[in-house]
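User: Can you predict the 3D structure for this chain?
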Amino acid sequence: MKTPRPIYVSWYETRLGRGAVAASPVGICRVWLPGDDLAEPAALCLTQDERTGAAAEQLTRYFQGELISFELQVDISGLSSFYQQVLELTMQLPYGSVTSYGALAARTGRPRAYRAVGGALRSNPVPIIIPCHRVVAASGALTGFSGPGGVTMKKLLLSMEGVDMNSIKTAASVKGYAQQKTC
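Assistant: Here is the predicted structure, written as structure tokens:
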């Protein structure tokens, strides 16, 4: 599996630090979160375009608690069709909600493929935009997050979205989008 080659890069700032976002000719293909090693995007020496500029602005607003939905085209074409399916379903998870790996696997038509779902989420090249942090274990445990800080970052992101961390354990076992934030 190969991530599409980025041709544009933009930077964004958050209270957690600096991040970067890259685009291929098709769409956003990579997000570096605050705390990630930013040597790779810095070495690319690429200019920004309107897509990476919009993505950087939307990521900044997300981390400020102002944005709950991204309006961006992503490019995950370098991933297998199953991984693409999982990430496309994950993009549909509403802000402030969680679901389980098993529930997500069931939505792919492969209910026993929860470990493969975890592999797809671990390969997510555009975290936050594809909100893999909203997927938890059936028990409600905050297992796995490939971003910087691991589970600590996952917990921070879910808390920032208003997810009640105490109720995840009972909500995660519900199929579909288990816990919905009410406005």
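The CA atoms of residues 22 and 32 lie 9 Å apart. The longest strand covers residues 8-14.
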